[in-house]
Each structure stands twice: as C-alpha cells, then as structure tokens.
Write a structure and sequence with these properties.
Length: 196
C-alpha cells in the first residue's frame, strides 16, 4: 500500500538522508536535523515522533518510488531479459538522481538496535525478491535463462551482486555514475544467466 507524504515530510526525509550521508547514524539527531533545516525541534516533531520514524519513512519512500517507476514502465509482453533490465535500470536511475537516499538501504548497521528498521529492511528484501523471482522463473520456463541454477539461488546471486555494487558506490562517496556502472554490471549478470 502506497504511503502518502506531505511536502514537509519529504523535506525532512531528504535532509535526514543528507545528514546520514555526511554525519552517520550518530549525527542524525532531531537537534542536528532541526539545525540543518533551520527549524525548531518542535517543528520536526510535528511530522515525525523520532529519528527511527524518519528512517522508516525514508525506507518506505525509497521502496515506493523504485517500485512505482518500474511498474509504470514494465509491460506483460516484455521478455524476461527486458523486465530484468527495466527493474534494475529503474533502481540505478533513482539512486543516481537521489544518491543520499542510498544510505538508508546500503549502510552497514543502520540503527541495528531498532527492530522496526530491521523489519522494514527485511520487507524491502522480500519485496525485491517477489519482483525478481517471477522474472527469473518465466525466463527459465521459456528457455531464456539457465536452469542449471535454481530460480531462488539466481535471485539471491543477482540481489547480492547488486547490493554489493550499491554498497561499494555508497562507501566510495558516490564517485562514479551508478546508473552507468550499474547497467554495465547488469549486462554482465544477464550474460551469466542467459542461454546463448
């Protein structure tokens, strides 16, 4: 179900992501956020009850936008190869435009003590798997993709490879064009699974 965010909430999400990117988890406090936005702390609290709630909203915002962008472009008649390309090209394009939001998904130990955040990140992984698995299964059934590796294992390999790429890009402080490098990686992944 899509979450609706107010303009002010989106401003807070964006500023929080910037703060996370530059100052880390310890730097993301309501006090620091209010200072960065020239707000009072009470103004932040009118929109979010805690930094945990802000991070959860950030994760929902990312997932919603990546999913919506893909679903708007994909058509049932597209081949599995094209569906896979669209799925990840959309993700790379989103993060190319919003690099600071990558910190929410591709960080190590983001508020590890938060059960709610861990569950949200897990749900994002489940959602990704639910989008990729049918594409892989369809590709295997129609002879496009190898059957030498089980579909769920291929999904795991693809997700892990992309996650590592995104994590490397984030810790490298977004130095490369993630859309260009991600699409190149995607082409290599496809070569590995497509039956020639």
């Amino acid at each position: 179900m899509a979450t609706s965010f107010s303009d002010r909430q989106l401003e807070i999400i964006d500023a929080s992501a910037q703060l996370l990117t530059h100052s880390g988890v310890s730097g993301l406090t309501i006090k620091n956020l209010a200072k960065a936005m020239n707000f009072s702390e009470s103004a932040i609290y009118r929109h979010f009850n805690s930094k945990e709630e802000i991070v959860l909203a950030m994760l929902r915002f990312v997932l919603q936008n990546v999913d919506t962008g893909y679903l708007a472009k994909v058509k049932p008649e597209h081949s599995p190869v094209n569906k896979l390309k669209l799925l990840f090209r959309n993700q790379f394009a989103f993060f190319h435009q919003h690099p600071h939001l990558a910190v929410a998904l591709f960080s190590d130990g983001l508020l590890e003590e938060s059960k709610a955040i861990n569950e949200q990140i897990f749900q994002i992984m489940v959602s990704r798997k639910k989008m990729i698995a049918p594409i892989i299964i369809e590709g295997q059934q129609n002879g496009d993709f190898t059957k030498a590796i089980k579909a769920d294992e291929l999904v795991h390999i693809i997700m892990g490879t992309v996650r590592l790429h995104m994590y490397k890009w984030r810790i490298d402080q977004f130095q490369q064009d993630v859309a260009k490098s991600g699409n190149k990686l995607l082409e290599s992944l496809i070569k590995l699974i497509v039956i020639a």
